[in-house]
Automatic annotation (TrEMBL), chain A:
InterPro entries, per database record: AA_ABC_transptr_permease_3TM (IPR010065), ArtM/GltK/GlnP/TcyL/YhdX-like (IPR043429), MetI-like (IPR000515), MetI-like_sf (IPR035906)
Source organism (scientific name): Aminobacter ciceronei
UniProt entry keywords in alphabetical sequence: Amino-acid transport, Cell membrane, Membrane, Transmembrane, Transmembrane helix, Transport
Compartments, as annotated in UniProt: Cell inner membrane; Cell membrane
Pfam families with a match to the protein in the record: BPD_transp_1 (PF00528)
ABC transmembrane type-1 domain span: 19-206
Family affiliation: Belongs to the binding-protein-dependent transport system permease family. HisMQ subfamily.
Domain of life: Bacteria
PANTHER family: L-CYSTINE TRANSPORT SYSTEM PERMEASE PROTEIN TCYL (PTHR30614:SF0), MEMBRANE COMPONENT OF AMINO ACID ABC TRANSPORTER (PTHR30614)
Principal subcellular localization: membrane
Name of the protein: Polar amino acid transport system permease protein
Keyword Nucleus: no
Transmembrane segments: 15-40, 52-76, 82-103, 149-168, 188-206
UniProtKB/TrEMBL annotation, chain B:
Alphabetized Pfam families for the sequence: ABC_tran (PF00005)
UniProt-listed SUPFAM superfamilies: P-loop containing nucleoside triphosphate hydrolases (SSF52540)
UniProtKB keywords: ATP-binding, Nucleotide-binding, Transport
Native source species: Aminobacter ciceronei
Family assignment from sequence similarity: Belongs to the ABC transporter superfamily.
Gene3D superfamilies on file: P-loop containing nucleotide triphosphate hydrolases
Name of the molecule in the record: ABC-type polar amino acid transport system ATPase subunit
Domain spans labelled ABC transporter: 10-244
Length: 219, 249
């Protein structure tokens, strides 16, 4: 079967029609994973039993395939009376899964901040919360812009997993076309290229951000 | 903090601290009257930093009491926070916040801790930047300043909180020689205004000119405490004598 460029182009509007869903899932999972991961890392750093427990949870998450999380949330939670829609399940699943990885990134970013920063904040009388928000978090972000961006790209690339929950994202659309027309190469190529474009855009944005963050404020 | 002038600014009584099995502060007793300037010196590892870090809660201790004005640290959580807030600290490595401008470094605690409106905080910050003689650097970032300028910003940042007590831990040790003077000048100015100051420093010229007490520490104890004149002319303790000799040569 020959690659039919005209047919490929004709699939673009349908597949692109789902880009909104892909971006919605990716963006909300990035936000969710960052928030949960940062919370995890703060608890882990505070030590004690909570810290140990969260440390275990982070390792557990990172040792499990993402599909296990999605299936568990989707098929097992309803047995306990918790019913989430497919979309919500997908976003929560990706957020939880990547929160484990982002917690590790945040850890590296915080570890790299000299002790003196927290000491100066304490000496000025800043509380824990203010210190975290105004002193630690901004410097952490500056330290980890690149690896964090890589995980955001990973989250984007993980959105097709939501096909197992029948969330209508781009790869799912491409597959629908393929099974209707028995032509796989064209729609899958188109979907792949769109993902590639999005990933490049994110990396570029992160690079810009990094340059800005590192500008005159570098140590 | 309700502080009356007859109460000493700092009273350290029978302070003992251990790092694990290592006895880092041994029975330290020290009374610092309001308005006085104390220079702490001693060999590396003698516990100078540990001692002054105990005065603002950066280090915990196992025995003894530290009283700032009328507030005993650790006795009452709310008062302890207040006492710390009124204690400024300047570090050897400046510890300015690199992601904030000079002005924001100075206003952060004013705004977050004292809930001061932005305008008021900024004009106060500018006042203290002028006092340390770098008003023109307000919009720069720390990395764009020289070491001496950064340390002066750190002093201004601490002064913004209107401290009753200023702690300095080797404020000039990380500076190139030509920048030491600009920082010492600012500190001398503060001393002349009556600020209560505790300085860990090996700048003996500064100690001679500004201090009213010199405290010499060795192996976690205060082994000599004297006026600068007495300390420099006739140090009693043999270790103080040998320490002064190494400084002079
Ligand atoms: N967190 C810590 N854990 C264990 N030991 C420590 C710790 N901090 C300091 N020490 C030890 O306590 C002793 C006193 O340290 P401190 O920093 O107070 O000395 P110092 O007089 O300020 O020395 P320097 O002139 O080198 O700054 C040193 O022997 C040091 O190794
Ligand atoms: Mg020291």
């Amino acid at each position: 079967m020959q690659f039919d460029v005209a047919f490929a182009l004709s699939t673009v509007p349908t597949i692109l029609g789902a880009i909104g869903m892909t971006l919605l899932v990716a963006a909300s999972s990035c936000v969710g994973a960052s928030a949960i991961g940062f919370g995890f890392e703060l608890i882990r750093r505070s030590g004690g039993w909570g810290g140990l427990l969260v440390g275990f949870v982070i390792d557990f998450i990172r040792a499990t395939p993402v599909l296990v999380w999605l299936y568990c949330l989707y098929f097992i939670l309803p047995f306990y009376g918790i019913r989430l829609g497919a979309l919500a399940t997908g976003m929560i699943g990706l957020s939880l899964y990547y929160s484990g990885y982002l917690a590790e990134v945040f850890k590296a970013g915080i570890d790299a901040i000299p002790n003196g920063q927290a000491e100066a904040a304490k000496a000025l009388g800043l509380g824990r919360m203010d210190m975290t928000i105004f002193v630690i978090a901004p410097q952490m972000l500056r330290n980890i812009a690149a690896p964090m961006g890589n995980y955001f790209v990973s989250i984007l690339k993980a959105t097709p997993y939501l096909a197992v929950l029948a969330v209508p994202e781009m790869l799912g659309r491409a597959f629908d076309i393929a099974s209707d027309t028995y032509r796989y190469a064209e729609p899958l190529t188109v979907a792949g290229l769109i993902f590639l474009g999005l990933a490049l855009l994110i990396s570029q944005a992160i690079k810009r951000l990094e340059i800005r963050l590192l500008g005159p404020t570098a140590r | 903090m309700t502080q009356t002038d007859d109460k000493p600014a700092v009273q350290i009584a029978s302070l003992n601290k251990w790092y694990g099995a290592f006895h880092v502060l041994k029975e330290v007793n020290l009374t610092i009257p309001s308005g006085s300037r104390v220079v702490i010196c001693g060999p590396s590892g003698s516990g100078k930093s540990t001692l002054i870090r105990c005065l603002n809660g950066l280090e915990a201790y196992q025995q003894g009491t530290v009283t700032l004005g009328t507030i005993e640290l650790g006795a009452n959580a709310r008062e302890t926070v207040l006492a710390r807030r009124q204690t400024g600290m300047v570090f050897q490595s400046f510890n300015l916040f690199p992601h904030l401008t000079v002005l924001s470094n100075c206003t952060l605690a004013l705004r977050r801790v004292l809930r001061m409106p932005r305008n008021e905080a900024e004009s106060l910050a500018r006042h203290f930047l002028e006092k340390v003689r770098i008003p023109e650097q307000a919009t720069k970032y720390p990395a764009q300043l020289s070491g001496g300028q950064q340390q002066r910003v750190a002093i201004a940042r601490a002064l913004c909180m209107n401290p009753r007590l200023m702690l300095f831990d080797e404020p000039t040790s990380a500076l190139d020689p030509e920048m030491v003077k600009e920082v010492l000048d600012v500190m001398t100015g503060l001393a002349h205004e009556g600020m209560t100051m505790i300085c860990v420093t090996h700048e003996m010229g500064f100690a001679r000119e500004v201090a009213d007490q010199v405290v010499f520490m060795d192996q976690g104890s205060i082994v000599e405490q004297a006026s600068p004149v007495a300390f420099f002319s006739t140090p009693n303790h043999p270790r103080a004598r040998s320490f002064l000799n190494t400084l002079l040569h």
